[in-house]
Amino acid sequence: MIFNGALGVWAGKLFRCTAAESHLLFVAGACSALAGMFGAPAAAVFLALEVFLPEWTVAGIMPVVMAAAAAAAGSYVLRGTGPLYTMPEGPALEGAALLPYSGIGPLIGLWAALSIKL
Fold it and tell me: d(Cα 35, Cα 1) in Å, to the nearest integer?
């Protein structure tokens, strides 16, 4: 995701774009990476609208939508509809496993809080 965004910023510097245009190229690149990797262009656009774009204008939204659509189409053509990342099937959650998981979860949460404090 960062690589596509960095390519957008590099293109902005290459063509001497303004800071706002360079930011828009970064957002379009990041959005295209998400749409291509996960095959979810609508989710990538909504994420870009919520997180990356400070103002919603047609001139700002259209490049992001087009980048997501192009990446999703390219992903579909190159690798089909299968997921890019797959997970092996894990063990089934049974009553015997629920007790250790319930104990380990809070311990990990406390360790994370301690790590943040340190």
Answer: 10
Residue where the block lists tokens 């909504």: 46
Asked if residues 39 and 64 have their Cβ atoms less than 8 Å apart, the reply is no
- What's the CA gap between 60 and 18, in Å, rounded? 14
On the CB side of 31, how many CA atoms lie within 13 Å of its CA? 30
Residues 36, 71 contacting (CB under 8 angstroms): yes
64-81 pLDDT, tens digit per residue, is 999 999 999 998 898 887
Cα separation, 26 vs 7, whole angstroms:
8
The reported pTM is 0.64
The answer to whether the CB of 41 falls within 8 A of the CB of 74 is no
